[in-house]
Structures are given as structure tokens and as C-alpha cells.
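REQUEST FORM: STRUCTURE PREDICTION
Request ID: SP-0412
Submitted by: Lab K.M.
Chain count: 1
Length (residues): 125
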Amino acid sequence: MQNQTVVTTQPGAGSSTIVLVQNQNQNQTKDWSTGLFGCFEDLISCAVAFFCPEFYPCYLAYEAGEFPCLVCCVPGWEIALRARIRAENGIPGSICGDCLVVHFCYICALTQMHRQIKNVKNGTA
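STATUS: Completed
RESULT:
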């Protein structure tokens, strides 16, 4: 396994500059912190997703740091968000796999993405 240092420089407010240095392990891959059908690990999220399917996607987009109205404006946003979560967390997979999961297991896919975001924030992923 080879470590790679990534340096990102972004302009800050005024004349300051923010430099972010990350050590990344190129070959490091993980799995989702919970399974696709792990709804029993977060019953509240599963119930809200099932009974409020109009609200839950907006909430998920907000939790992921995206604009909540994304769900109304961008077709296929769920697939793009799932791919982004996979990429950020080193989870292997493909766009085709994301498309199939979102299409055939919509509520389960949304709640799995929410659990992943929550577990990353809590440091348990």
C-alpha cells in the first residue's frame, strides 16, 4: 500500500489562504458502515423515509451538505449523491451498481446513505 499526500490550496477571506494537507492511502477501500437492508439500525430514519417520501430526500440532501431543493431540480441526484458518498469514503462500487440499488431499493438506498453520513460524522464509520 502506498501513501499519497494531497495538498489542497483554496483562497480564504481577504488575502488569507487555507491549505489542507491529507494523507491518503491509495489502495484503502472500505465497505458501507451498514448494510443496504440495515433499517433496524435506525428505525426512525426508516420510518420517516417510508411515511414521508417527499420530505426525506430533501433532508438527506441537506445532511450531505447539498442544497435541499436539489431533489426537485436534478434528475438522478440520488445516484450522484450515492457515488459521491462512495468516493469520499473509499467504498468500492460503480455508477451502474448505484443506479440499480437506487432504482430497485429506493428507500433502503436513501436510509443507507443517511446512516453512512451520520456514522462518518459520529466517527463510527
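NOTES: The mean pLDDT is 83.
Reviewed by: T.R.
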